[in-house]
Specification:
Two copies of one chain form a homodimer. In chain A, 47% of the residues lie in helices and 9% in strands. Chain A is of the alpha/beta class. Chain A has one domain: SGNH hydrolase (Rossmann fold), CATH 3.40.50.1110. In chain A, strand 4, helix 10 and strand 5 form a beta-alpha-beta unit. The longest helix of chain A is centred in the middle third of the chain and has 18 residues. The two termini of chain A are 31 Å apart. The N terminus of chain A is likely disordered. At the A-B interface, helix 1, helix 5 and helix 13 of A face helix 1, helix 5 and helix 13 of B.
């Protein structure tokens, strides 16, 4: 079977494109959502926001240096930026990572003027929630699902008013079942945070990236250590799945 | 036009797969070479060897920790590993980076037992040559094209004898015209090193990854700073092109 035939067969089978991991196609089958962006406009600013899963060791001192690898960190943002930049060299994209480890929704709100609104992103991607649960559970924070829901709803609502032209991507917070940092209560207790994010994406007509579904599919193929040992922070392989899922859901 | 139709159209046009940058398809058109590997076997060991372009800040202390991101560095090896690991979770691949900044061919030879043969790679990828020229030009090294050619030929020849089952990938050394570290003499003088590598790949029936062609195509789309400011070390976007080209040429 030569390569051309292989492409044909893949397309006819409707499994999506080569180089998109099978896992991602299982989690995000078929065509994009109705909201999917038609394409990237020239000079588009793309901003990734979130907690440690987004932060991934980015250098704070380079934060205004669009597209710099040191600023992008070592996770799904960097991998997504690599693909976007290599595939769209004519577009002069400007990609930023402003995730901060440990952040909960209210902490995004506190720094939103500086770390979101002032950048006037064309695409804004938010992944937040695991610390809203984790820090509460650890006794370091008093918020609960209701507060997560209210805070995130407020953040999205005010952002839509301030940046009416911005496409907003809301990423599903996720955990990897069996991860070293999780106990057995996580799976049921964290589900409410995921549901809240999903409902907010629906209510505000945002692009939703179903990361939990992606990792659930991934865990059918390889154990949790392969995708992210502690169950919260993805490995390189896990980050690549996130990147491919983001690209498939958003573009 | 829905996504399914878009895939069909792309396939019919024969331009290759979605998510492979247009630049890579221009440099590596159509099907794979006759040598292309049919697939990745289970437990395959994949070793990347070379100089700083391969090294990319990898942590020496993690060098035996297969697939660890810190060991893989921040360049094309890490990006290639991310894709291989996410796409092949059932295969238990073991991927290593043993590039060392500043290396010339004879320095690979000196550490070959420890950093290649002992790992018994199923796939061995080598990118070497820019320092063989650069250090000679800078007066730090007495080698020339003839020595590069002889040293690389010896290295490949002995490796084929020691590791008869290993698939060897020889990557084309490259420069990005106009880079800050290059003067006008580089383009003509370095061509001989590239030609030597290409001829060796032919003579030993190796997979050849035409990185120079990839970057020549890339420079038609965006300036040198976008792909690698100094003309030797690729940016994140440049590293992603390398990764996609490697994957297209090898798999």
């Amino acid at each position: 079977m030569n390569r051309r035939n292989f492409f044909k067969k893949t397309v006819i089978a409707g499994t999506g494109a080569i180089l998109i991991p099978e896992i991602v196609n299982a989690a995000i089958p078929g065509t994009n959502s109705e909201n999917a962006f038609a394409g990237l406009k020239k000079d588009a600013v793309i901003l990734f926001q979130g907690d440690s899963i987004t932060d991934t060791g980015r250098k704070r001192e380079d934060e205004n240096n669009a597209n710099a690898q040191s600023m992008l960190g070592n996770g799904y943002v960097m991998l997504t930026a690599a693909s976007l930049l290599a595939n769209n060299p004519l577009e002069s994209l400007k990609i930023y990572n402003r995730g901060i480890s440990g952040n909960k929704v209210f902490q995004l709100q506190e720094r939103w003027e500086k770390d979101c609104l002032s950048l006037q992103p064309d695409i804004l991607s938010i992944l937040i929630g695991v610390n809203d649960y984790w820090h509460m559970k650890g006794g370091k924070y008093e918020g609960d699902i209701a507060k997560y829901n209210a805070d995130l709803r407020d953040l999205i609502s005010s952002t839509k008013k301030e940046l009416p032209g911005t496409k907003i991507v809301l990423c599903e917070p996720f955990i990897l079942a069996g991860g070293a940092a999780l106990d057995s209560t996580w799976e049921s207790e964290f589900a409410g945070y995921r549901d809240a994010a999903k409902q907010i994406a629906r209510d505000f007509n945002l692009i939703f990236v179903p990361f939990q579904k992606v990792f659930n599919e991934a865990l059918k193929k390889a154990p949790v250590d392969y995708w992210g040992r502690d169950g919260v922070h993805p490995s390189l392989a896990g980050a690549e799945l996130m990147s491919q899922a983001w690209l498939k859901a958003v573009l």
